[in-house]
Amino acid sequence: DVFEQPQHVGHKKIEFHITADIPSVLQINSEKEEKNDLCATTEETNNAGFGKIFPAPTSDDKMETEEENDEIPSEFISRRELEKNRLSREEMEKFSVFKNYEPGDPNCRIYVKNLAKQVQEKDLKFIFGRYVDFESEMERNMFDIRLMKEGRMKGQAFVGLPNEKAAAKALKEANGYMLFEKPMVVQFARSARPKQDSSEGKRKK
């Protein structure tokens, strides 16, 4: 009673009157779009896909890999930092710990000595973790740090790396690195560990 009931009316006819000018307008718009597309493609090359609804997948992949590479220095030490705080060959000769230094036979395990008292496993992980691909479960499992804090082996550590190549790179880049104002001595670990312990003891005497 309150609202009026809508009255059913027959079919209405809707007509569109299109003038002949519109196609030319559309043409201008399409030209503008083409220009915009050109701008977008130049922007895409500069900004790796910025401003495009569907950027090229290759540029996206590149960005991701670049980001991953950039993450290395934040989680682990950067090569620049290693080089900056590493002793030169001439400086090493002044330290008795580098006297008669021999890198040893290459293998995937390295031996680190002359470590400062305050060195912790996380410090060694920060340095040697850069030689491990943590996305690979196998490499993650092979990465192993044993830091000796007591007894005769105090100030020494063994670091297991995924392969010989990684160990050789770690030895080359980290030997002579000043950690807590003490230069690290990095060598390849010998397989006969007890023999190594006694020879280390003799060397110290």
Automatic annotation (TrEMBL):
Localisation per UniProt entry: Nucleus
Keyword flag RNA-binding: yes
Signal peptide: none
Region listing for Disordered, in residue ranges: 48-71
SUPFAM superfamilies reported for this sequence: RNA-binding domain, RBD (SSF54928)
GO biological process, one term: mRNA splicing, via spliceosome
Domain RRM: 108-191
Source superkingdom: Eukaryota
Keyword terms: Nucleus, Repeat, RNA-binding
Annotated GO CC locations: U12-type spliceosomal complex
Example GO molecular function: pre-mRNA intronic binding
The protein's name: RNA-binding region-containing protein 3
Organism the protein comes from: Eudromia elegans
Gene assigned in the entry: Rnpc3
